[in-house]
SFRICE_029847 (Spodoptera frugiperda), 268 residues
Amino acid sequence: VKNVYLNETTADNSAEISILKKIWNQTAPLFKPPLLKNSAILFYLLLSAFSTSTGFTMWVPTMTNEFFTDDESHHGRTFCEVASQSATTGSVNDTEIEDCSNSIQNGALYATMVYSGVSTMLMITLSFIVGVVGKKIITLAVFVMSFTAGTLLLFVKVPMLSIALFFMFLYVAQVLGNINTYLVELNPTHLRSMATCLSVVVARGSGFFSVQIIARLLGEYCTPMMSGYIVLVMSGFVVATFLPSESQLKIISQGEPNRTVDVESPKD
């Protein structure tokens, strides 16, 4: 035998396929049937959760600081009335400002630390009980908790209770772990990395734009703005009802080999 000819194709790592084309081949299948429905549900849940959580978290020190000032002007006022005052303080003409050396009150610092600590403990707790309760039920419960806290926040006039409800409203971000798990379980192996990367883009991108919206509307339109975010969270709950149950996830995982064949990246 002098020569052997193998009928095989070489790995196509040449410059014929651009980086953008490779990215497209990993992204496009996520937004085509049969993956389109699940992708739309999961990315919308991320958008609704992180537009609310990340958007307002940026303003937590500013909003809570006003509740710990010595003038007690926050007593008998709703959260939005106090938050609007904190947002408009110092926005008048410089000649009218008497003191522009405002500082964060100790109480506001401690409250923010509690907010972060409880968020961490809640995330750890949910990670332990998710196997027993189920991802869908926990996701729905988080949205209900956030929606309820946000609704009460519009009417409560007790300072410490307002702060507690505000923090609970922002804990809607606790759905992140479940959503990323869904993205892994509902997508073929070769698309999972891109799906989780896109989840970060959606979460952080929506949070960035939300921060700008809140900055524009907090001072004069706090109540309508808060109402809009509450509706957004409620819509997230409605969409979350379409998530597959644990039994459905088991069926999907058992059919992974066939699903991987059916959902292929676009041909070059």
Notes: The first helix runs from residue 19 to 27. Residues 92-97 have pLDDT under 50 and may be disordered.
